[in-house]
Structure formats: structure tokens, C-alpha cells
Design goal:
Chains A, B: Its EC number is 3.5.1.18. Chains A, B: This is Succinyl-diaminopimelate desuccinylase. The structure is a homodimer of 462-residue chains. The first copy, chain A, is built from 15 helices and 18 strands. By secondary structure, the first copy, chain A, is α+β, with helices and mostly antiparallel strands. In chain A, strands 1, 2, 3, 6, 7, 8, 15, 16 and 17 form a nine-stranded mixed beta sheet that branches. In chain A, a hairpin with a 6-residue loop joins strand 1 and strand 2. Chain A is globular. In chain A, 51% of the residues are buried. At the A-B interface, strand 9, strand 10, helix 7, helix 8 and helix 10 of A face strand 9, strand 10, helix 7, helix 8 and helix 10 of B.
Chain lengths: 462, 462
């Protein structure tokens, strides 16, 4: 039986697969720091070589930033199977603060922990370990069957952790080459360690930076305190007024294009074992702080938000300085859902802030990213096929879930290439991605490979 | 006539007096920066030598920080005249940002400007130029009369710009030596360039630093945005709620001990040529932002305030990071008036902030300075004598004014030595103290010396 032998091969090859991952993890491919430019090249070279060893026609493709790795491989002759694209990213987050790591982030190792063996190192979960689950599944398939089950295009990025500046232009310039029937993306997580997940709803993201100016220069609060407009107080009022007492965002028109959740999906979510108290308990909190009339999963998956990510103004050093500052600034981001229009919300937000300003204040805005939410086409048969395949591998049935974060790549595939995407990943909440001591469960790595073998089989069964 | 000859001597000696001041200004006695410790010693030495040349028994007195300069001189025998203390400070503010200075801050010079000649350099107005107005007046008096008109104790500090850590202990240890009949303090300004002022109301200062903690660590706003408590939003709400719509501070009990202004003084203030629009216009503002039912002078002189001097939290660097931070912090200061009790207000403020916190938030407080307001005993005859003397020198009659800032020394003299203080100074609003390009008008220096000669004459006329 074709799948069983691939799974057995994956099991017996686990030590070698782990060694290959450790090798890739040793390359410090931090994309955001120019000092690691060569390492990004090395990681791309490593992947080109590894894909080539699988019979993939792979190459490193230059961009103004770090290179893309693109590879193509044919499937068996004469079968009517989909042409799949696989996406992952080989770049990793910076590692500071380095002193909070228990080991060199780029000297990865297998560690025994109370919860089982983990692969510890920067990029283990985000995203090198994840992308290798797919490549290893392909390797086992190729070894057992001499060819992959379908035509596959590999598309590996090196700038995901630094805003993907080259991604859209590259996709536009190479649209024909990259267009397949379906994209598989491995950069997400499990619902919990025993419940696999397909992410079918992604929140969009709108970033705004605002600078409120009052006096023309910093003033002494003795001389001017009381009579002069203080931009920190103005900014605080603006922020305090962005939500009402029920936790709803007050920006006019904000909820346009935000329907209530489909009752069937809501029922599925209500059936998931999600306790806001324990989800929040892990970060020292106990009560959901969002819209008072929405469940915890709705708050993080299907409801839009407005958060302040940074604020600063005046004197922030040691001791005290009685300055009355000229400016106060904040970075504010919105998570968007369903059909919310980021550019319309940007406009409405800016007008709303303007309308709240007292006399003698001005505001300047600087826009950061603006991406719509992503909603997957779960009515396509491939989604139920993949869901069943994942359910076969793991203790619990796979779930369609939302994702609070933004993974713009899925939207790009849809918009630029007209291609649907399926987001499957094996990360866990405690993987510490973007933080010190990042890890990937060895079990996630192993069963991740097995999951992909099952998904490939299910999608190409014909 | 004894005063006229002193005034003439001051006039003829102006070039030499200016040279002496330039010499003192060349010593970079920045008290807050340990790199300038030796310079503070040199400034103290310079003053000891200069006072000694006047026949003052002066010496440098060690403290755990920078030294005090203390000197004593006798007046004429057998006259019933007050024993005066003169206070000033020889330390200066740091000079950064250095690139905003048009010349080396410690290479002072006389410059011609559209408004007349100025002495440009760090410390010219705050406080070396001011303290020298008094010493030069004494020098001229001594030269003309062979002795000063009364017994004078000189008390010059070197830590005023860095919080005066040694001041209170030194005063306590040397209380007997320092106790006189009246203290003269030269560290304040004119009401305007033609109207001299005696500061008779000083606002007190209470500093509080608060840290609001929500989640135990920084979170990703994709994963937790909406459901997790954001301390920046909590802090913003707290700050927004510290004032009501009329600009009044909402801290319970805040206005205890704050009477309405004495009608006579209010009438005097209303008669002063103060246009909030032009006061604010110089710093790019146009409308008073304080209590809506109080005049501009009340807002800055006799009403208490609550201002935010600094705020920070989350990601404040270039670009965008969708962090949901664990902590948000602010530095808040209160200017206090009349009988407001700083410690009671601190307690009330802390309880009030606590009461505003939503679930899952904690707050830590760190107290900075806490000083009461200072109210001078203007009913003492010496005040009217000095006011007349100043009025004789300048185009406009001298005014009793308030001061928005805090000059704790006056309170210390009262509390520790039981001695009233009189604050007379010749600074102007455009002196740029604490900022680049500090200056002192040559006219202020010249007429300041003449003013002191007149005040000395008036207070010792008998």
C-alpha cells in the first residue's frame, strides 16, 4: 500500500531528517539584520542543494533583498492530479535578547523536556522545522515510489520576518511560473497538541503611526503646566476613546463588512476545547478583555480589533524631568476580518482622530501595512480531503480554525495568482516563536511529515 | 549720598564685572554629570577667591556631592540692621544637544542682538549671571563705603540643577551658622523686561512614576489582540480620566487647601499686562488649556496642575512591531499651591489610580520629589521696602508674582531655619535656560546689580 510504506520510511528516516533540520538551523539566516545577509544566501543555497537531491529543478532567484528559492518537479506521467505549490520561509527572527537564551540560538539540539523531546533553536518552529516537514514527506515519497504523487512547485521565501518586501513584485514578475492549482502553506499551528488545524480565516492588518503635536517645542511644566496643551494627555484621550465600554471599536464604519459568524462554524468553534481562562492564564491574565458579548475564540479569530502597540512622548529616562513635551506618538494596529476594507478604515480612523483633537493640536499619520482578511474556500473538496487526512494522523479530528495573526501570503496567492491556499502547520502555542528559546516538538516534526504524506495522498488519490 | 555713589561705581565698573562673569561662565560646572566633578570644584574655588577679595571669610565646604560655598562678612559696627543671607547656585544644566548651540556653551561672549547686548553661554542666566549681580553690588558698596551695609552670609550651592541632594542635610548640620533675619534668593525672573518682580508664591511639586502591568510578558497582537488586556490602553484611560471636561483634576481631595485667590492680589494680577495668547503664541499655541474658569496667570501661578511628563510602552522604534506589551509607564507630576499636602495627594492619587484599574492589571508606583507650595510673608515691611527699591530702578513698578515652577530652597529656609525668603531675579522668558543658546541680557546684569544696591540700601536704611 503506497501510503503505508511512505509513513514507515518517514519513521525509519526520522534521525536523518532531524540531522538535516539541525544543519539548516545552524545557518543564522536573520533577514532583518544586514549583518546576516550572507547567511540568508547560505540558507537558500542549502535548500537548493537539498531540493536538487530530490530531483527538483531548484534555483536561487535574486531579488532586491534576500533570494527566493524556486523549484519544480514533475509527478507521475498521465495522471489527472492537481499541480501543488508549497510555500515556506527560510529566514528567521532576530535572537535578542541573547542573554535570555539557555543555549546558542544557532547551535540547535534535541532536548528532553517534561513534555517530550524538542528541537531547540532559532527557526525550529518558525519556519525551518515546518517547511522541512513537507520536504521530508516528499523525500520519503520519492524514495518509496521513484516519483512524487503530483507536479509540485516549491516556493521558499527569505524575507518573511522582515515584511516580505520582494514577495509581491516577484510573484507578479513570475506569475505564470508560480500559478498552480492549490497552494500549501506550512507556517501555522495546531489547535492544541492533539488537534490538528486548517486555518481558514486570517485576520488582515492595518498599521498606523500617529504623532500629535501641541507646543512648538518642549516646555518646562513649571512655567507652562496647566495653561499649555499637553500632547500626551491629548493622545491618551484619543486612545481611551477608541473603544466603548463594551470593548467595541468606535471608529465610524469600522464594523462594515463584519457579519456574525456562520452558525455552523460557530458551533464547531464552541465545540473546541478552548478555555479563555487557561489560554490567558499562561500569560498571567484571567479574563477576556475584548468585546463583552463575544466568545474567546471569536475575539481572537473572527472579530476585528484595535490595539496600541507602542506609545512614547516626553521624558522617559531615569529620574524625573518636568518637561511638557511638544509631541506624543503611538503605533496603533487594527486586525481586520471578513470584508473590512483596510484603506477605508485608515481614512475613517484618521478623520476620527482629527475630529477628537482639541485646539492647538495637529496630528500626522504614517501608514504601515494594510492587508485585508483572508477567508479560505472551504467548500472546495480538497479541504475536506485534507481535513480527513489530518484527522487520520492525530488523536483528535482536525478543525477549521481562525488565526488572529496576519499571513499575507495567502491573500497574495489569491489576488496575484488566483490560487486558493490551504494553511496547515504543526506549531504549538508554547513554541516561543519570535522569543528566546524557540523550539519545535520532535513529535510535531515527525507527525508533521507523516501528515503531509497523508495530505499528498488524499489530494492526489484521484 | 551713599546709594548714588554705589550706583555710579556699578556703572563704571560694568566692563570689569562682565569680564569676571565671563571667567566664571568658562568653568563647565555641570553638576549632574560626574565627568564635570572637578569643574564644580573649580567654580567653588573661584567663588571663594572672589568673595575673599571682598573681605568675606569664605570657604568651600565638603558635602557628599559638590561643595557648598559659605562666607560671612560683618557690616558696620553698632547699627541696628538685619543680618541677610544671600543664596545662589554655581552649577549649571547639561548642554546637550550640543549641535543646537551656535557657539561653545563654555566659551561665553557678549553678543549684539536685535533686542540688545546679551551674555551668551551656559549658566549666564541660570544662575551664575544672577548670583554675580548680588556679589557685584556688594563689591561696589564695599569699594565706596569700606564695609557692607549689614552683616551678610553668602550661601552658594553646587547641586541645584541635580536635585540638591546635599542641601537639606547641610542646612540641618549648619543651622545655627546659616540662620539670619532674611534670605535673599536670586534665581527667578522679571515679570517682563520692564517690570521687576518679587516672587511671593511658588508652586510645590509632586512627582509620581507609575508602571501598569497587564500580561506577564510581551504578547503578539495577532495571537492575543482583542482578548488580552493591553496596559497601554489602560494607562491611556487612567490619564484621560485625571481631568474633567472643565480641566479640573479629578483626584479625590485634590483641591483641599486651595483657596480662591485673595481679591487684592487677584486685582493686581489682572492689572498686569499678561496676554495668554502672546505668552502661548511664543511656543506655537493660542488658547489656555487649563481650568476653563481661571485666568491665564491663575492657571500658571496659583492653580494646582497635573501633567504627564513622559509616557512609554511597547515598541517605539522604527517600523512596526505588533507587540501587545506587558507594561506601560508614565511620569506624572503635580504642581501644588497654598496648603495642598503633597503626601496626602500622593496617597489619594495612588488609591485613585488603583480604583480605575480593570481586572488583570496591577500598578507599581515610584515616588519622586514631594514639596509643598511656598507662600511668602508679604506683610513684612521688608517686602514693601524691596518692592519700592526695585520700582525705583526699572521703568515699571515691581509686582508680586507667582511662579509656576518650584524653588524648594525658599521652603527649606522657612522649615529648617525659620527664616523668610525674598525671591528677586532679573531673568527674562527668552533666556533659554536649560536649553541651547542660554543668554542673560547685559541690561539685566547691569540693572540687576543696581537693583541689589537699592534693595540693600532700602533694607538697611533703618
Amino acid at each position: 500500500m503506497s501510503l503505508e510504506s511512505v509513513l514507515a520510511r518517514i519513521d525509519s528516516d526520522l534521525p536523518a531528517a532531524t540531522d538535516r533540520l539541525l544543519e539548516l538551523l545552524r545557518i543564522p539566516s536573520i533577514s532583518t539584520d544586514p549583518a546576516f545577509k550572507d547567511a540568508c544566501q547560505s540558507a537558500a543555497d542549502w535548500l537548493v542543494a537539498d531540493l536538487t537531491s530530490l530531483g527538483v529543478r531548484a534555483s536561487k532567484r535574486d531579488t532586491p533583498g534576500h533570494p527566493m528559492v524556486v523549484g519544480h518537479v514533475e509527478g507521475p506521467e498521465g495522471q489527472d492530479v492537481p499541480h501543488l505549490l508549497f510555500y515556506g520561509h527560510y529566514d528567521v527572527q532576530p535572537v535578542d535578547p541573547l542573554n535570555l537564551w539557555d543555549r546558542d540560538p544557532f547551535d540547535p539540539a534535541i532536548e528532553d523536556t517534561a513534555k517530550g523531546k524538542v528541537i531547540r533553536g532559532r527557526g525550529a518552529a518558525d519556519d525551518k522545522g515546518q517547511l522541512m516537514t513537507f520536504i521530508e514527506a516528499c523525500r520519503a515519497w520519492k524514495a518509496e515510489h521513484g516519483a512524487l504523487p503530483c507536479k509540485i512547485t516549491f516556493f521558499l521565501e527569505g524575507e518573511e520576518e522582515s515584511g516580505s518586501p520582494s514577495l509581491v513584485p516577484f510573484m507578479q514578475e513570475n506569475a505564470e511560473e508560480l500559478t498552480c492549482d492549490l497552494a500549501l502553506i506550512c507556517d501555522t499551528g495546531m489547535f492544541n497538541p492533539s488537534t490538528p488545524a486548517l486555518v481558514t480565516m486570517l485576520r488582515g492588518l492595518l498599521g498606523e503611526e500617529l504623532t500629535i503635536t501641541g507646543p512648538a517645542k518642549d516646555l518646562h511644566s513649571g512655567m507652562y503646566g496647566g495653561i499649555a496643551r499637553n500632547p500626551i494627555r491629548v493622545l491618551s484621550s484619543v486612545i481611551a476613546n477608541l473603544h466603548d465600554a463594551e470593548g467595541r471599536v468606535t471608529v465610524p464604519g469600522f464594523y462594515e463588512g463584519v457579519p456574525d459568524l456562520d452558525p455552523e462554524l460557530k458551533a464547531q468553534w464552541d465545540g473546541l476545547d478552548f478555555e479563555p481562562e487557561s489560554f490567558l492564564g499562561e500569560v498571567g491574565l484571567s479574563q477576556p478583555a475584548g468585546e463583552t458579548d463575544r466568545s474567546g475564540l471569536e475575539q481572537i479569530w473572527s472579530r476585528p480589533t484595535c490595539e496600541v502597540n507602542g506609545i512614547w512622548g516626553g521624558y522617559t529616562g531615569e529620574g524625573f524631568k518636568t518637561v511638557l513635551p511638544s509631541k506624543a506618538q503611538a503605533k496603533i494596529s487594527f486586525r481586520l476580518v471578513f470584508q473590512q476594507d483596510p484603506l477605508k478604515i485608515r481614512e475613517s480612523f484618521r478623520a476620527y482622530v482629527q475630529s477628537m483633537l482639541p485646539p492647538d493640536c495637529t496630528v500626522d499619520f504614517h501608514g504601515h501595512g494594510a492587508s485585508s482578511a483572508g477567508i479560505m474556500e472551504t467548500s472546495a473538496p480538497s479541504f475536506e480531503q485534507a481535513r480527513q487526512a489530518l484527522s487520520d494522523e492525530w488523536p483528535e479530528a482536525a478543525a477549521y480554525v481562525g488565526c488572529g495573526g496576519s499571513i499575507p501570503i495567502a491573500g497574495h496567492f489569491k489576488k496575484i495568482l488566483g490560487m486558493d491556499a490551504m494553511l496547515i502547520g504543526f506549531g504549538n502555542d508554547d513554541d516561543q516563536i519570535h522569543s528566546p528559546n524557540e523550539k519545535y516538538d520532535l513529535n510535531a516534526f515527525h507527525k508533521g511529515m507523516r501528515s503531509w504524506a497523508r495530505v499528498l495522498e488524499a489530494l492526489t488519490r484521484g
